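Repro:
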Amino acid sequence: MVAILQHEQRVDPAALRLEPLLGRLVNYERSRPALRVWDLVTIEALLARPFAGGKQCQAVQVGGSKGKGTTCAFLAAFAERAGLRPGVFLSPHVDTLLERIRVGAEAIAVERLEERLRVVLAYAETHGLRATFFEAMTAAAVDEFAAAKVGLAIWEVGLGGRFDATTAIPVDCSIVTSIELEHTDILGPTIVAIAGEKAPVIRANGRGFTAAQGAALAVIERHAASVGARLSVLSRDLRIEDERWDGEHCLGRLVLPNGRELPFQLPAARAYELPALALAAAAFVELCPDAALDLTPAPRPALPCRFEIVTLRGGEVVVLDGAHTEQSMSAVAVEMNRRWPRARVAVLFACAAGKRWRETLSRLLPIADSFVVTELSGTVGEIPSAIAEWLRLQGRECVLVSSAADGLVALMAQPGPRLVTGSFYLAGEVRRLLRTQ
C-alpha cells in the first residue's frame, strides 16, 4: 500500500488537452444544481446546423435508473458479434472522458474529439448558443457516428429523459430499464414523478421496452399509449425462463415479445445483469431483425466499476461498483452475498450531493460491519462526517478519512471481502490507485 500513497492519481490527459474548449462550459454533472436549468432548445439547434451529422443508421436510446450502461454494453456487444459497427455514447466516464464516445471497440481519439468540439462550439458561439458540457459532447458524438458510418447508434441518457440532450436525437427504439428514487431535487420527489420524466425517451409511434414495475410502469404505459408507441414489459411480454446457475455462469431462455426463444449462457454473470441482457436482446432483434444473435454464450462486456472484481498481486480482492441508489446497492449486496456467503464486508464509501445516502447505505447494513468514509474529488459530495456519524448510530464501526488514497489504505487494513461504492467518482479514483499494485 506504500506504493499507492507514493503514486499521485493520474490526471486524464484528454481532459487536460480539451480544457481550453470544455473548461468554459457549464458541467452540471460536477456542479449538481438543485433545479433543472436546461432544456432541448440548444441541443436541437446544434443538431440542426448545416453539415451536422444526421441520423444515418438504426438508433436506440437507453434511459432509466439502474442498468443503463450494462444494457448499452450488451447492445454494443451484440452488434459487434453480428458484424455491425456500433457507436456508443455513455456517461459518466471512469478513467477518461474519451470513454463517452466509442466506435466499435475503440474510444474516440482525443485529436478527433478536439476537432469535433471545435466545430460544435464555434457554431454555438457564432449563433449565441450557451452549450453545456453534455450538449457539446452529445453533438460531437452525433457527428462522429455519422462520419464513421456506424451500423447501430446507442445513446445512454445522462439524467432523466424528457430534457436530456440525447432525447433530441431521432431513434428507432427506446429502453427504460427500471425506475427508482434518484435525483429527486431535479426529477421530482416520487416514483411517479421520476417515471414521468424518464418515460418520454419512448417516442411518438415508436417502439419501447422496459423493466419498470408498479406505479412507474403505469406511468410509462400511459405515456406510451398517449404517443402511440408499442411497449413491451419485462416479465410480461419479455421473459427470462428456466434460469439456473452453474458456478459463476447463468443459463436459461429468453422469450422475446414476438415469441422467439433464445437460449442463453452468460459467463461470469452478475444476477443484476439479466434484465439488461433481456432488454438489450429484445431491442436488438427489433432493430436488426436480419442480424444473427447467438447467446450461447452471450458476449461478456466489461464495464469499469460495475461490480468490477480487482485481484491484487497478493491475491486480495477489491470490488468496485458505482452504485448510488437503493435498488442498485441492493443488487450489489445480493451479489456480494452470493459470491461470499456469510462473510462480513468492509466498505469504502462516498457519495455525491443530493443522494439518498441513508437509504442506500441501509442496503449494506445486513452484510457489512466496518466502513471507511471519505470525501469525493471532482464533484460536490455529501458531508463525510455526517455519514460517519449516522453509521456509528447504526452500530457500525466507521473510520473517517480525507482522501480516496487514505480510504483505500484503511480499507485494506480490514479483513475481506472489500467493497468500494457509493459513487463512480470514488470507484474510478480507487481503480486508478489500484493499478499501481
